[in-house]
What does this fold into?
Amino acid sequence: MIFKIPDLLTPEELAQITDQLALSEFIDGKLTAGWHAKLVKNNQQLSRQDSTYDALKGLLQKALERNPLFQVAARPKIVHSVLFSRYTDGMAYGRHTDNALMGGSSFLRSDLSFTVFLNPPGAYEGGDLVIESADSETAYKLEAGTAIIYPSTTLHRVDPVTSGERLVAVGWVQSLVRDASQRELLFDLETVRRSLFAQGGKTDEFDLLSKSVANLLRQWVE
It folds into this structure.
């Protein structure tokens, strides 16, 4: 399941992030890539040793924590390995899949990947995020403050930036529910449950559906 979150970040949060990134130290993105991804990764990233990194990462994580769509659809156990990336003229990230395990010896699983767009699409040419499916591919170039969340199992790429500057935050989620089809089923049931409550309050049908959602969580949560 791929889903977008418009306005994940407020205008004030966006301004805070972009203002600080403009003054921060960026390093070669290959330093955080797997051995095969290094061959196709050409971007820059905010150094994790930079004095602003922890604050910006915390701001982004809080935005995800407060967002109900992200919480219900992703069922996050932990959001990890956050990176702030910059692409300028000629930079790209070729076709790749994300590492299954991240965080060094912590062995954090990547179930879901996310990209948060930090500047408007008019600020750069090219630079689309392209996600492949079995028989097609879809390009995304979204408004500043918007997030897209997609399975880490996919092949995807960032097309070359031909002018301007592309700023994004990327990260990964280890979900409480490992199986993608189970997460989607829980999301659909939760959507129906909330719709029933909005229409009729705490009815017998709402209670029965709530029981089923809770019992599925008991079976599937790790």
User: Anything to note?
Assistant: The mean pLDDT is 96.
